[in-house]
Design goal:
It comes from Mucilaginibacter paludis DSM 18603. This is Conjugative transposon protein TraF. The chain crosses the membrane at residues 24-44, 50-72. Pfam families: DUF4133. This protein is mainly α. The protein has one domain. The protein is built from 4 helices and 2 strands; from the N terminus they run ββαααα. It has helices at 23-44, 49-74, 78-87, 98-108; strands at residues 16-17, 20-21. A two-stranded antiparallel sheet has the order 1-2. It starts with 15 loop residues before the first strand and ends with a helix.
Length: 109
């Protein structure tokens, strides 16, 4: 059976695939590749096949759930904005107020 999936290719609109927006498609793909590698490592190391499948399906379900929630909660740029906000300092130290006074004088010019 062949399935037809539509990908939004509108101008200035984010790529969307089954409800996932922009970079979340890449996060999901990377996570699935990591799960395939984890399955191979577990299988080669001699872990029971059913235990491997249980671990991989459980982790895959969790991965899909987390990525889709992030996509719906933060949207196209929200997660990047959240990470940028974390890198901002809580406060700035200044030895003098001279910098702020000069800013005020330049605004009046």
């Amino acid at each position: 059976m062949s399935s037809v999936y539509s990908i939004n290719k509108g101008i200035n609109r984010p790529i969307m695939f089954r409800g996932l927006k922009a970079q979340y498609i890449g996060y999901l793909a990377g996570g699935l590749v990591a799960l395939i590698v984890l399955f191979a490592i577990l299988y080669i190391s001699g872990v029971n096949t059913y235990a491997c499948l249980l671990i991989i399906f459980g982790s895959g379900t969790g991965l899909i759930t987390v990525v889709s929630r992030l996509s719906h909660k933060y949207g196209r740029f929200g997660l990047m904005k959240r990470q940028a906000k974390r890198s901002l300092p809580d406060y700035l130290w200044s030895g003098s107020r001279k910098v702020f006074r000069l800013l005020r004088k330049e605004d009046t010019l």
